[in-house]
Batch of 3 targets.
Target 1
Amino acid sequence: MPDLYRLKTTVEAMQLIPGTDNYKDICDWIHGVSRGFIQVNHDGDRKVYFESPLAGDQTVIPGDWVILHADGVFRHCPSTKFARIYELLEGLDD
């Protein structure tokens, strides 16, 4: 039976929060590194689409996360996967 390992890395991340306009903050954050744009769905929820140089086209739906990895690449991460892999680092000075 193989052993289980946890990913040991620190990343910056923002969640696309359903029912809010924080998609603007995410696009501002991505801007300059990747091309990002917004699509409004018929039900009013917003998705963020962006192109990542190494990871390709990315689609972020409400509840999911955008992660900036140490290699400087933004990637999409579904909320369920994010919750399994990452935990918030608290008490760090900005």
Target 2
Amino acid sequence: MKLGDYVKDKITGFEGVAVARAEYLNGCIFIQVQPVGLKDGKIIESEWIDEQRITEDSQATVGGPQSRPPKIHSSELKIRSF
């Protein structure tokens, strides 16, 4: 698992994007998971989850460096005139 992966907590089912990693002196590693989307029009708070409970979800990696730039269709481009 790496930052930017879409992950899921094996126990609670909480899922989202891995946005941070914390490693403590005692060896515990926690991953901050930020859900995608809104609830009642507000951002859902992220959660810190023990790395051992994290599994990669089947969705694609989001954010971060990419090997290829995303494809943009001409219909998605907006041209501004000044």
Target 3
Amino acid sequence: MPRCAGRRARPSPAADHALGGAVTAALCGSWDHEGPCHFPHHTSTRADGDELVVTIRFDAPDDEVDEVRRLIVGAVRTGTLVGSDGVTNRWHAVD
């Protein structure tokens, strides 16, 4: 059953893509992984003033939903991800 989690963040430039990478790394072990995601998901962002509204749609068995939500919150709260270009992207979790 599809689920949804939402967070807010204040990003540095281009951090919107890094937020999705951080969520993928948390749920799949790496943002650059082989094969399908362990927990199929999609991360989208939209601007709201100087903040991003981050929406993560995911699929997980009922008994793993709380763990997936914990991983998502942790990923957004980390506030940093080094991209494939070696650039460190930063953001600040708002909630």
